[in-house]
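FAQ: What does the model actually see?

It sees only this:
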Amino acid sequence: MTDFSDVSVEESTSAGGRWAAGEDPAKRKQILDGARRAFMKYGFDAASMNDITREAGVSKGTLYVYFANKEELFAAMIESERAAFVAAMRTTLAEREDVETGLHDFGMDFIAHLTDEKVISAMRTVLGVRDRMPALCQRFFNGPENLRTILRDYLVRYVEAGKLDISDIDLAAAQFLDLSSGSFFKFRLFGSMEKPPSKQEAERVINGAVRMFMATYGVANKG
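And it is asked to produce this:
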C-alpha cells in the first residue's frame, strides 16, 4: 500500500488558494520533467519510481498522488510532449498566409521534431512496450488532434480560397507528411543516422516536397 504520509500540506489542501492534491500544474510538470530525465537516462523498463522521485525532486508520496504507476506517468509524459508539439505546429500554420511558405515552415519544424533525440528515444520506448501497452501506442501515433488533422485544416483553408485543388484532403495531408519525413525518420529510429540532418539537407528535402505537392495540387499548375 502506498504511503501518502509525506505529501505536503500544500499538495493536500485547496484552502487559502492552494491546489488540491494532485492538481497543481507546476508540480505535475516538475514530475513529468523528472520522469523524462529518468527515462532518458535509464530507459523505460530500468527506470524505477525511486529514480523518478530523485530526478523530479519530490517525495514518493507526492509522486503517487499524481500518478498511480510508471506506465501512467509515461503515458502522461508522452501525451504532454505530443500536445505541446501539436499546438506549436498549429501556431506555425496559423501565422502563415502563403500556402507554400506555410508548407515549407511546417515541414522544417516537422523534420526538426521528428529527428530530435528526445522524440526518437520516446518512439523507441513506445514501440518497445506496444505489446503490453497497446493503447499508449495508438494514442501516441493517432491522437485526437494530430499533425495530419492540423495540416488537413490548413489545406481546407486554401482549397476554399481557390488556391489548391484537392479532392481527397486526408490523403493529401498524409502525402505531404510522408514527403517531408524523407528517410530521415527511419534512419534515426533504427540507428543508422546518429544525428538529426543539417538544416541544408532538411531544406533540400522540404523544398522538394513543397514543389511536388504544389505541382500536383496547386491551382496555378493546372491551367
